[in-house]
Amino acid sequence: MEASPYLPALDYISNRMDGVQGFLSPLDAGLFLALDLAQKGAGVAGDMAEIGVLHGRSAFLMAHLLRPEERMQAIDIFDLYWPNPPYNHPDAFIGNALELGFDLGRFNLVKADTTKEPARVLETVGQGKARLFHVDGDHRLTHILADSKIALEATSPDGVIVFDDVFSYLMPEVTEGILTTFKGRTDFVPLALSPNKAYFCPPHLKSRYAAYVIECLPNNLDTEVRRLLDHWVITFSAEKPVVLRYFDKMGGGGGEVLHRNIQGRNIDFSLPP
Fold it and tell me: On the chain, which terminus has fewer CB atoms closer than 10 Å, C or N?
């Protein structure tokens, strides 16, 4: 059997991610992998994008998930300022990428203030081009609203948008911005919540994405289905060890069997229609 195509990503999460300054948790890293698996099984293609890359902790995981023709759109103000070290100097990002063995051609570094140059950012990233868009920039309301608008326009109709620090008591403007942005929307709706992030997806793929994250991370799943903005949402906890199912078995032509297995399984509780 061929080696799993996810081995570089798994090695990064297990052995190298902690060496990169940033805030992506192992649980959210696992959710990113499960969503990527769901997308590849459905033929969802496109770049990945992140606003607020800092030193690249999340961006490098996303880069490990790219197909050969896809790129990582790395957007940051890169103004050398952050309230406390580490400072978001682009040299830190580039140095980490090289140390991890990445080809820099996989990344498109976009230096911009998204509140002042949203059109340029969107033109660079591309309208509807991203299959996974991670928003972790400035947590003030003006920036959250600007970043959300860019993410909604840049993400594919089949893609997923992820926001950091939603519902954190330390970041109330993030909560306000997300609720303001998504209340009443029908193109992207809540999918899942982790302790640190909120995940949004299109309604027509919600059951597929839910099946994958549930089956890949059952140890961290809260089996009570909750509601947010008039939509059901599944929640994940980091109280137990993060255990990723399936990824060590991928490869050797078994991918389609794996996708059918995940889609065909009866989960332990019912999801609303």
Answer: C
* 9-29: pLDDT as tens digits: 999 999 999 999 899 999 999
User: How many domains would you assign to the chain?
Assistant: 1
Which stretches of the chain score pLDDT less than 50?
252
Query: How many residues in the chain?
Result: 273
Q: How far apart are CA 211 and CA 209, in angstroms?
A: 5
* Predicted model pTM: 0.93
Rg (CA), the chain: 18
Q: What does the pLDDT read at residue 245?
A: 86
Strands of 221-228's sheet, edge to edge? 107-111, 72-76, 47-51, 130-135, 155-164, 197-201, 189-193, 231-236, 221-228
Q: Return the half-sphere exposure (C-beta side, CA atoms, 13 A cut-off) of residue 45.
A: 5
Task: Tell me which residue range forms the domain holding 208.
Answer: 7-264
**CATH code of the domain containing 80:** 3.40.50.150
